[in-house]
Amino acid sequence: MKTNLNKTNALLSLFMITGHFLFAQIDKSATRETKNLYRNLKSISKEHILFGHQHALEYGHGWSNEPNKSDVKLVTGSHPAVVGIDFSDFSGRSREQIKKAKETLRKNVIDTYERGGITTVSWHFNNPASGGGFYWKDSISAPSMSLIKKGGSHHEQYKEILKTIADFANSAKAKDGKLVPMIFRPFHEFDGDWFWWGKKYTSREDFIEVWQFTVSYLRDTLKVHNFIYAFSPDNRFNSESEYLERYPGDDYVDMFGIDNYGDFGRDGKYDLENGIKKLKIISDIAIKKNKLAAFTETGLESITNKNWWTEVLLQSIKKENIKLCYVLVWRNDAVSLTHYYAPFPGQISVPDFLQFYNDPYTLFENDLINVYGTKFSLKNTAK
């Protein structure tokens, strides 16, 4: 049985009405729906966690481009509460390819909003100053964060790329005429060395400067007011100070995230104690700064541990009074027989995933009522 959040939201509304803003959202001009989502995500994290899946509606295990379909829905009857998309095709492509990508994603985010779900956006940003795509490739890739910052050789080009993102954000209008809120997560896993914006190729000062410019240009110049901004390194930290080493400041981040596959079973290796410790770090920072926290990426490729959902993931996120608004697992490739992170009918972890789905702590799309409104609640019926 799922509990509702009416009492929690009534208290939050009181804070808003009396002018005592409980949450430090960085865009004071954010749309009403974006502010409501931000507030509701915070209240969700007190007692529950939303489940998310990357590219859930675009394709799945053995299929692609089928309306209102997801592998998660095939298994549970509900789409994930959080659906991941990517802005990877918004640069380094032809004008026609960019236009087609925008149309496809616009329909995706609007459909998700109108069903009552939530969209999060990653950005596998193709290198604007060299070949190599978004990964770092020796002898091909340029360390381009220094080139796209203000005064850099590719700064004007970077501004044009951000205009493409702003155009999409400002055109994602639902049938009710409202702009769809999105959680935008740029430059993720920046503490690694696999992306061209990674720590090995970017100074701390350049990373912070580019992040601050990105947020300011989108929010203040291009008037994007339907983004919640998420900061998410990989798992290469062991303390709050290490996590915040490249933090751009409280005026430029709404959500603290972590991408962590390594501690949760990648290559057959588990270090759950360490993984829980890192989740606790970001949860504590978010509480201290009155912001959001989320497990922005995780998963076990091929889900070879049939009880991974309850014995690994669920037990971990319930430990240490951790407060996270969502957890997202990576994509299910349409062609590969092994590259998948959510179950599909017949996969060995389906029974365990159904236990995970039915646990009162986890929330899926069908559990949410009015997540963009001031009277958000959860369905009070058993799944």
TrEMBL record:
Q: Which GO terms describe its biological process?
A: substituted mannan metabolic process
Which key words tag this protein in UniProt? Carbohydrate metabolism, Glycosidase, Hydrolase, Secreted, Signal
List, for all copies, the residue spans of the domain called GH26.
32-366
Q: Where in the cell is it found?
A: Secreted
The protein's matches in InterPro entries, at most eight in alphabetical order, are given as: GH, GH26_dom, Glyco_hydro_26, MANB/E
Cleaved signal peptide residues = 1-24
Tell me one GO molecular function of this protein.
mannan endo-1,4-beta-mannosidase activity
Show the GO cellular component annotation of the record.
Answer: extracellular region
Write down the chemical reaction(s) this protein catalyses: Random hydrolysis of (1->4)-beta-D-mannosidic linkages in mannans, galactomannans and glucomannans
The annotated active site, in chain numbering, is 189, 297
Binding-site residues, substrate: 124, 194, 261
Q: What class of enzyme is it?
A: hydrolase
Task: Give the matching Gene3D superfamilies.
Answer: Glycosidases (3.20.20.80)
Marked site, Plays an important role in maintaining the position of the catalytic nucleophile, at 188
Question: One Pfam family from the UniProt entry?
Answer: Glyco_hydro_26
Return the EC number: 3.2.1.78
Q: Family assignment?
A: Belongs to the glycosyl hydrolase 26 family.
The protein's name is: Mannan endo-1,4-beta-mannosidase
Q: What does the record give as the organism's lineage?
A: Bacteria, Pseudomonadati, Bacteroidota, Flavobacteriia, Flavobacteriales
